[in-house]
Amino acid sequence: MRLSTKSATLLVLALLIVATPFFFPSAYYYRVGALVFVNGIAVTGLVILTGYAGQISLGHAGFAGIGAYASALGPTHLSLPPSLSVLLGAALSALIAFLVGRPILRLKGYYLAVATLGFGILVSMVLANESGITGGPDGVQVAELGLRDLLASLGLKLKAPVFWYAFSGVVLLVGAWLALNLYDSPTGRALRALHGSEVAAKTVGVDVPRVTLQAFVISAVYASVAGSLLALQNRFVTPDIAGYMYSIELVTMAVFGGAGSVFGAIFGAGILTLLPQALTFLAEYEQLMLGLIMVLVMIFMREGLVPSALRLIRGRGA
Amino acid sequence: MPELMQFLLSGATVGAVYALVALGFTIIYNASDIVNFAQGEFVMLGGMITVFAHMAGLPLPLAALLAIVVTAAIGVALNKLAIEPARGAPVVSLIIITIGASIFIRGAAQLVFDKQLHRFPAFSGDDPIAVLGATILPQSLWVIAGALAVFIGLWLFFTKTLTGLAVLATSNNRLAAQLVGINTSWVMTLSFALSAGIGALAGVLVTPITLTRYDVGIALALKGFAAAMLGGMGSPHGALVGGILLGLLEALTAGYISSQYKDAAAFIVILAVLFAMPQGIFGAKRTERV
């Protein structure tokens, strides 16, 4: 029996999520694992935008910031429960992506890169400057999600790190499943067609502006949800989450693992999240390494680690 | 009125720096169609190397010269090690390569130098000169004069010298340039050296006013890009005018609207220009070949 890429990806992901905790020496590892999953969610969104549709965004941390601050400010300013605040953040990100995406996505290449970069920086600037609402550069406390208490009242008591590990893992699986479904859907095919050649896609009747906008909005929602989850598990958020560096890190994770494949991108998120944690004694070299990885991967493995490795293996087998 | 004059003077100073960064972008963009996001790091290197060479006992002019030469060499290395091996890569890959290179240079600067703010003495003292009720630092005049000199030098280079014409030929059509015997790989080396040297010069000129640190490059690269785009990508006088305009706009935003949002001015300009006139003020209209 041959598994489809979709089932194989989901199966491997699920196995990894369930099995790795057996090797965790301490609760700290659950936190790191949850962080991998959160980055994995945001990066899966970038797979849809960059991997499928071939559009670059250097401003997706802006959407993560919107999601994070929605979950932080919804409960305090609008007295919404945190869970609804997450949805509000996702809806707000989708709306902003829709409004901003329409003009921005007419741009190509460098112009698109700089326009999205500018968008992300504007978001982080607003979050840092409007301290009356957002708490300013020092950040703001985030309320408890409440789901853990609900589970406890049902008899399932989980420690916070374990809960967040499991919850982020489930959200990542759902996100990956949706992204993989999209791949084979008519929209997914249209996106991949325009990635190959925009002109060719147009000639066969793809509504290019509409499908790129769809990809942009969907990827913004992924980033927003990731931002919300990050804020909720840290119980604290600062404007850094919307910053330039986080946008760049997300893109690097995606292209490092392989922006064209959901599993590859999540793998890239895993490696680049774990690396700084494992090499804390090399903390000074973090930027140096990140930059070097970006350059080397783009020169030697343009498709990213996982697709290049798979090609190598398949090439040998054939 | 003196208030407005003050904003205009400080805007022109900052604008001259943006113009220098934008000129650096323009040279590389013209030779290779690549937007080098590491352009701001050249400015940082120019300032930092001068600071440390001066601290090590070198006289200021020698330290500045050393900084420009070393930065130009780093520019050439960037081209040879990161850009040339990736020739023909899609734009997304090239964007990631130059951003990666900028992060790498920043990381290296933080290790080789330090994370502190630095400056060195201004070239002609720090006594402000009164102009129409406002004041200007002598160093600001150096910055503005430097930008103008570089612009005129580049203009002469690109219109009057054979080498300059070879660069223009390469930018117009790489293959055709090769066919008439132009060594295009040497043109690329030259462009990166020139662009990095100009960036370093900007760093040398402005450090006594704005100070420098390992991470000043990102913001400058973005502003320089905004300036280049405002003037029209690939046009040297566009870069000059775009830079000065952006500097003025920022100074006026800071003065009359909000200093917190002065950096937002650049990005709002980028977005507005992109939507209203994507080819900028002086840019040539480009059509995409299919």
UniProtKB/TrEMBL annotation, chain A:
Keywords: Cell membrane, Membrane, Transmembrane, Transmembrane helix. It is a multi-pass membrane protein. GO terms for molecular function: branched-chain amino acid transmembrane transporter activity. It comes from the Bacteria. The keyword Membrane applies. Coiled coil: none annotated. It holds the Pfam family BPD_transp_2. This is Amino acid/amide ABC transporter membrane protein 2, HAAT family. It comes from Consotaella salsifontis.
TrEMBL record, chain B:
Its main location: membrane. InterPro entries: ABC_transp_permease, BCAA_transport_permease. The keyword Membrane applies. The keyword Membrane applies. It is found in: Cell membrane. It is a multi-pass membrane protein. GO terms for cellular component: plasma membrane. Keywords: Amino-acid transport, Cell membrane, Membrane, Transmembrane, Transmembrane helix, Transport. GO terms for molecular function: transmembrane transporter activity. It holds the Pfam family BPD_transp_2. The chain crosses the membrane at residues 7-31, 51-78, 90-109, 129-158, 179-205, 238-258, 264-284. GO terms for biological process: amino acid transport. It comes from the Bacteria. Belongs to the binding-protein-dependent transport system permease family. LivHM subfamily. This is Amino acid/amide ABC transporter membrane protein 1, HAAT family. The lineage of its organism: Bacteria, Pseudomonadati, Pseudomonadota, Alphaproteobacteria, Hyphomicrobiales.
